[in-house]
Specification:
Layout: H1 3-11, H2 18-23, H3 34-48, H4 69-79, E1 87-93, H5 96-108, H6 119-135, E2 138-139, E3 146-151, E4 156-161, E5 164-172, E6 192-194, E7 200-202, H7 217-228, E8 233-238, E9 246-260, H8 269-280, E10 284-292, H9 294-301, E11 305-315, H10 321-331, E12 335-339, E13 352-366, E14 369-376, H11 382-387, E15 393-394, H12 397-401, E16 405-417
Parallel strand pairs: 1-2, 1-3, 9-16
Antiparallel strand pairs: 3-4, 5-9, 5-10, 6-7, 8-9, 11-14, 11-16, 12-13, 12-15, 13-14
Helix pairs in contact: 1-3, 4-6, 7-8
Length: about 425
């Protein structure tokens, strides 16, 4: 059959609008909207049959929805009012009846059920095109800032606001601060415990706060970012984490803060960085704050980083300088075999890992105290590298000098990957506010 025969069969199926007529042949002609394609086919069919042109005011397929693209676009724009966005996508919840009509139109006309374009696809495109024109934004089918979901049955539009992200590096200048909030393990973060009389009382373990530590890097940074972006929640993602009793110094540790349901995105990150540092009052400071993409979260979390440490080490008995130097020489460039340390064995799988010491140097401050600096592979337990962890780490400084020792102070000086590429355009968002 010719395209005109097929078009005549569609027209004869019942009152059908130009959009629904043209949509069936979307894969057989190009450069026209479905509306224009349908009108052209209807006109040609009428001329070919020498019949008067009859335009349909009704449509049994879409039930008039194709005439309401402009109205749906206006509703979508109204629903997006107050939300700042640069990219968008439009989706549709299509009533089962219209989906069924769209399929029956092809079956009744003797056409393949997948011929042309679906009603849902057309509505998404046509409403989306109008939303973009009205808001001056761009469509993004991968990960838009917002999704406007048209509900044909309910007659309204739901808005899904996708998270916004900022990337930077933080330094933790005080000890005794975890990276993220640390709920009390005794009360589960409630701050309450069961009293003798069967009621509730303040948790003795955390003092009723619900947390083991009063502050964290997350609590000193994320709330400021959340407020600036007017979000519902902020989540902190770090490239690994240092021990609670360790400082993060030097070049800092990469992090991303994810803000959920943000109403503002194009924040001035220079000002935001200053606001965070003022809020943290010298306990934590950040630098290099930039707007980032969702891909940055995975990049930071999966960073295969090497780390540089500085440690104060105390020996149980005096150590000779020559013995100390020989031990460092033996560790320099060594491959270390480490069984999961006792201090973390309760929360990590028990297994043996091999990690490399890239370089190490140090000096004795006196016969029982030393300062050691090393750069090692990610996942190297440096405290156990010094103490030996009762033989669970081999070789170790304690084992090589033959004297028990422990790390009394630990600073992380650098966290870096072999190829970080954090400035890659896939990870950062350029905006006028950052210029």
């Amino acid at each position: 059959m010719s395209i005109l025969d097929d078009a005549r069969a569609v027209i004869d199926s019942g009152p059908v609008c130009d959009c629904c007529l043209g949509r069936v042949f979307a894969d057989r002609s190009f450069g026209l909207t479905n509306d224009a394609r349908g009108r052209a086919l209807r006109t040609t069919v009428a001329l070919d049959a020498d019949e008067p042109f009859e335009e349909s005011d009704e449509c049994w397929v879409c039930e008039g929805e194709c005439n309401r693209f402009d109205a749906w676009a206006e509703r979508a724009v109204d629903a997006l009012e107050g939300v700042e966005f640069e990219t968008y996508q439009v989706g549709t919840r299509v009533p089962p009846l219209i989906e069924e009509n769209d399929r029956l139109l092809r079956e009744d006309s003797g056409l393949p059920t997948d011929a042309g374009e679906s009603f849902k696809s057309e509505l998404n495109r046509e409403v989306g095109k109008r939303v973009g024109e009205r808001t001056g934004t761009e469509v993004d089918f991968e990960r838009p800032d917002v999704l406007a979901l048209v509900n044909l049955d309910r007659g309204d539009v739901d808005v899904q606001v996708n998270p916004a992200f900022v990337y930077g590096r933080y330094r933790k200048l005080d000890r005794g601060i975890p990276q993220t909030e640390w709920p009390c393990r005794e009360c589960g973060g409630s701050g309450k415990q069961l009293a003798a009389d069967g009621g509730e009382e303040s948790c003795d373990y955390c003092g009723g706060s619900g947390y083991l530590y009063a502050e964290s890097v997350e609590e000193l940074t994320a709330p400021v970012v959340k407020e600036a972006m007017d979000g519902a929640e902020a989540v902190f993602h770090g490239a690994g984490r240092e021990d609670v009793d360790a400082r993060m110094m030097g070049t800092g540790r990469p992090f991303v803060i994810e803000v959920k349901h943000p109403q503002q995105r194009a924040v001035d990150t220079t000002k935001l960085e200053a606001d965070v540092n003022e809020f943290a009052e010298g306990t934590v400071e950040i630098e290099g704050l930039r707007r980032a993409t969702h891909e940055m979260v995975e990049r930071v979390k999966e960073l295969d980083a090497h780390k540089t440490y500085s440690m104060s080490v105390e020996f149980a008995t005096p150590v000779e300088e020559e013995v100390f130097d020989e031990a460092l020489d033996a560790l320099d460039g060594a491959r270390i075999e480490q069984h999961t340390p006792q201090r973390v064995d309760h929360r990590r799988a028990s297994r043996t890992r091999e990690r490399d010491v890239y370089e190490i140097e140090g000096e004795l401050d006196d016969a029982r105290h030393a300062t050691v600096e090393l750069r090692g592979a990610g996942g190297l337990y440096v405290k156990e590298l010094m103490s030996g962890d009762e033989g669970r780490t081999e070789p170790s400084l304690a084992g090589l000098v033959g004297v028990d020792c422990e790390v009394t102070a630990l600073d992380v000086l650098a966290v870096a990957g072999e190829d970080e590429r954090f400035d890659h355009p896939d990870y950062l968002v350029e905006s006028e506010a950052d210029e």
